[in-house]
Specification:
With 173 residues, this protein is α+β, with helices and mostly antiparallel strands. The protein is 29% helix and 25% strand. The strands form two sheets. The chain has a five-stranded antiparallel β-sheet with strand order 1-2-3-6-7. A hairpin with a 5-residue loop joins strand 6 and strand 7. Bound molecules: ligand K1U and zinc ion. Ligand K1U binds next to strand 1, strand 4 and helix 2.
Length: 173
């Protein structure tokens, strides 16, 4: 397993719509394992394939944050939201592709998602709380959308400028 580099915004690969997985393969399962390792290493609670430069509809998540609790890694190929609650919840989101920047995003509080698991089986489940926020944030990545797209143009521009500077500083170091 390998920790892969995470792309930093702005990057055209983060703005592209990712392509559905037609058939599972060992390469795709290896990518999912690398993504989980990359997510835990960051650390983060989710990661989408475009964040490691792969334009495939694959996300991984583990929103168990309690110290000492058993991890609950999830691998979702071709995830799709099939139902969303009218009730909303607001969470101060972050993003591993936009380090140390945060913003309030309002989304449906509960969603039903269907996906293909790592064994090729069809799955569906209801997500609530942080899991619901995270799965929507990750599916947005597959559609080329970042949490800053929900913020005001001014705040988005400010954060983007900071990221351009961060990337310039990292390139010089
Ligand atoms: O997709 C990503 O960039 C990962 C992102 C997911 C996410 C965070 C917050 C709300 C919705 C989705 C992160 O994991 S940012 C890091 C983070 O939230 C975290 C890191 C360590 C412990 C707990 C949370
Ligand atoms: Zn993100």
């Amino acid at each position: 397993m390998t920790v892969r580099p995470i792309l930093i915004h702005p990057d055209p690969r983060l703005k592209k719509v990712a392509v559905p997985v037609p058939d599972l393969s060992d390469d795709l399962r290896a990518l999912a394992r690398d993504m989980l390792e990359t997510m835990y290493d960051a650390p983060g609670i989710g990661l989408a394939a475009p964040q490691v430069g792969v334009g495939t509809r694959l996300i991984v998540m583990d929103c168990v944050k309690e110290e000492g609790a058993a991890p609950r890694p999830m691998v979702l190929f071709n995830p799709a939201i099939v139902a969303a609650s009218d009730e909303t919840s607001t969470y101060e989101e972050g993003c591993l592709s936009i380090p140390e920047q945060y913003g309030d995003v309002t989304r449906p509080a509960e969603v039903t998602v269907r996906w293909i698991d790592a064994n090729g089986g069809e799955q569906h489940a209801d997500f609530a709380g942080l899991w619901a926020t995270c799965v929507q944030h990750e599916i947005d990545h597959l559609d080329g959308k970042l949490f800053i797209d929900y913020l005001s143009p001014l705040k988005r521009q400010l954060i983007t400028r900071k990221m351009v500077k961060l990337k310039r500083d990292r390139a010089r170091a």
